[in-house]
């Protein structure tokens, strides 16, 4: 049932939000010259997939977890995208393609070995990663791997269609801030 909801929500989201995506893309061209950010992330069964986002950091920024990045790496437009969560919009394509779900554990990088170990212990990689979830709306980020892996596992053990919708509406309503960047 959740895959059907993922497909429908992402399909209609892309269909209705493409004009906003186009505007953000054009602004991003002026901001960094390369508005789409594609990065290999850990997916279901620890298989790699290419995550798509609007670029929020300068093109030459080192590829590390967000909480290890500096605020000086984020462009002004990127700050707006992060605060509004519009940087996540291209991930609807990942959801449509089946690489992600709207709700699930945030996909991490392969170099986040502590988080990978903690998630693996708890069976988190048996599920698709997501754009949002209990960890995000609880404001738990990837800088606390044990706490995040525990929250991810809790969410996945108890995930219902009602919870799925609750997490989506909480995120759209502004709850949660995503991964924090060090000052």
UniProtKB/TrEMBL annotation:
It holds the Pfam family Bac_transf. It comes from the Bacteria. The keyword Transmembrane applies. Residues 3-172 form the Bacterial sugar transferase domain. InterPro entries: Bact_transf. The keyword Transmembrane helix applies. GO terms for molecular function: transferase activity. The chain crosses the membrane at residues 7-30. Keywords: Membrane, Transferase, Transmembrane, Transmembrane helix. Belongs to the bacterial sugar transferase family. This is Sugar transferase.
